[in-house]
Amino acid sequence: MSERGKLLVISGPSGAGKSTVVAKAIEGRTDICFSTSVTTRSPRPGEVHGREYFFVNFERFREMVENDELLEHAEYVANRYGTPRSYVEKRLDEGMNVLLDIEVQGARQVRKKMPEAILIFIAPPSLVELERRLRGRGTDTERAIEGRLIRARQEYQEADFYDYLIVNDDVDKAAAKLNAIIEAEHCRFGDWANWLKSN
Ligand code: ADP
Ligand code: 5GP
Questions:
Q1: pTM as predicted
Q2: Ligand sitting nearest the alpha carbon of 43
């Protein structure tokens, strides 16, 4: 059966461990690809244009919004982030599962445009632990860390439309939960009803 891929939306506060858990979960899997977002934020040390993000200026970002090139977009702690639409559509049509790592406003837009998307929220065990991880990562200024902690509290209040919550206390366990969700979603009866009738 040629099945259209699943759109997997991962959100959660910056520093919750989304990138770490996703990297672990998709290790060795060839059926999942990651959609690289566009952002106006500056690259962190070690980040590569086209790998972590496409880094663009505000002017180019505005142009992409005007041309309807983005599936969703949002502002996050004084920068703009968005998902290029054409890549996502193409990979889903090819049967690939496509994973987005986006914040809550963007996830809400995806839910409206593509109700079949699977929305997963990854949270740290506590906000104290979140702060520890953000500082431990050593990539953000004090001001950025404070902004991210404020935003985390806001996101918790708005996240009630997600399908799944994974608490990332342990990377291996959280990655196993993410893979279990993906497997379960591929067993949805609705996706297989025609196959069953034709057997
Ligand atoms: P995000 O992608 O959500 O912003 P990262 O994956 O960059 O978060 O993780 C933030 C920091 O927390 C990193 O230094 C990472 O190594 C660490 N981390 C991730 N998951 C865990 C965990 N379960 N326990 C302890 N530290 C973790
Ligand atoms: P960071 O600056 O830490 O890489 O990302 C900050 C936040 O922006 C994270 O919550 C991340 O999920 C979110 N983000 C990254 N790419 C996108 C995107 O394309 N769209 C939206 N809406 N949020 C994004």
A1: 0.93
A2: 2
